[in-house]
Amino acid sequence: MKNSGLTMIEIMFYLAISAIIFLASFFVVNFINQVKVKNQAVAEVEYQGNIIMDKMLQSVRTSQGVNTPIVGASDTSLSISMSDSSKNPTVYSFSGNNITIKEGASSTTNLGNSNIAFSSGTFTNDSASADYDSIKVSFTITYVNPSGKSEYNYSRTFYGTASTRKK
Hints:
single chain, alpha+beta
């Protein structure tokens, strides 16, 4: 008589291989999820930082001049004169975890969204010529991490410089 069933050792061997494959799959899926979450945090900070920096530098380039900060000084706010009276003056300010813009008599608007926080923002007037004003901008954006998970931790400091056109 021939036995055609599986032995206990064969069953344990197949279970062990299945468990190893399952654990490896779990760790791979978990790693992929952590990378995805980290990339979301990085993408949000990079996107918001680039958009905000571009908006500020474009405003400086199209302005008629800088009201504050004065030449050689740094400040947490920037006031620029605009040719469009509805946008004159345009004021950018770092306050708390936000950066705001106020164009002319319009209400103050927060730039960015609730997923990011600003810190260490400064505007420096480095004008070396009477023909134009030159402004250096720097600020740090941090991804807001209410869960405390390390995958969400990301910060970046953005730097930019723009000059007004000839006066």
